[in-house]
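Ligand-bound model needed. magnesium ion.
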Amino acid sequence: MTTSLRGFRDILPPESELFAQIEAAAREVFGLYGYQEARIPTLEQKELFVKSTGDTTDIVEKEMYAFTDGGGREVAMRPEGTPGVVRAYIQNNLGQTGRNGKFFYIGNMFRAERPQAGRYREFTQIGAEYIGNPAPAADAESISMLVRLLEKAGVGGCSVVINSLGCAECRKAYREVLLGFLRGQAGKLCEPCRGRIERNPLRALDCKTDGPWLAQEAPKRTLCPNCEAHFSATQRLLGAAGVAYEVNTSLVRGLDYYTGTVFEVRSGALGSQDAVCGGGRYDDLVRSMGGPAAPAIGWAVGLDRMAMLLKDRPAPDKAPKTFVIAAAKEAGDRTFALMTALRAAGISSDFSNFELSLKSQMRSSGKSGAAFALIIGEDELKAGTVAIKPLKQQGEQFTVPAADAPAKLKELLNAGNNL
Ligand code: ATP
Ligand code: MG
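Prediction:
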């Protein structure tokens, strides 16, 4: 048989239910903060990611599903959502016509990395972008919304780590200091870092191999007075919003477009792939991609990793409330109509195969987890009635006129606290 590709997985019940629950929690929180959904393409011009995510990042350099399509175009499966949202913002002139510059997306991303627990080649991100507000309140709102979303979804035990990379001036000054240090340490660096320190020395701090010791030994970043003020105002507002966080001046994040505030959310419960969310400011990206000067901030959480943190939660009860059974050969049509009427009245209903024996259909009703079996046999067919048999509580089977069945079931289900 043909199997799925390595790193690509099926998300099936009950995990798919968990995904839906998390998405519903996210949509509710986005609504509270004035974010609206952007549904953007999965496939884009490769150049979009090379120019925005950056050609020295792991994502673009090593992990992108990029290919030449039938028409000779260089295209790529999106590895992240921000470039597409920014492209859509510019292409549709949303700086002029958009409401408040707040967008969220929920979608699958593709990265050809080595698959392991919590790391797949296709995964889902929920992301938020706030384009057009340079103030520290935008940073604090974005981060506190993220924390609210994790809480609302039931993900606890996470820690928020923040840093500021500073403006272009701060980064330029730090780049020189860091580059000097890294040149002196070249012998200790891993191969890829050695290859890219001249092009992008900050990336070494984000390297999975060298990051940890560099965090201890490399010179610390400094901020200009403006960036320092922005960063402390952000922290003050986070405090006011009741968000617990920790500052780590070595946090750089692996994408090229970040400026100023950057952050990550981690969970010890995830083991080695401990990052749940990454984000930060990208004040220059919109302009550099050909749009207006529009400072922005955003983040993306990994839905697969959130679901891992929630996997021990009891799965929601998706059993139908009712199960219909045709106990006579000619009763199938009437039973099918009954099931249709129940669903139209908002009562979930299921069936198996009307052609099987009463005993077999009863067995299926037991397995279904339904609260009531509704049976139409020869007698009921003649009398225009339905027999209702409680499956989860004590009680005798009784009969009601078929037309009254939906109302009666509603009453019973409400009385039984929906069972
Ligand atoms: P990591 O350090 O784990 O590689 P990252 O910095 O590459 O993460 P981002 O690009 O910031 O991750 O993406 C944000 C979130 O998306 C991550 O925190 C994670 O939850 C999720 N994510 C990223 N890559 C994968 C993947 N290959 N499989 C599953 N989830 C992923
Ligand atoms: Mg990664």
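The longest helix spans residues 15-32.
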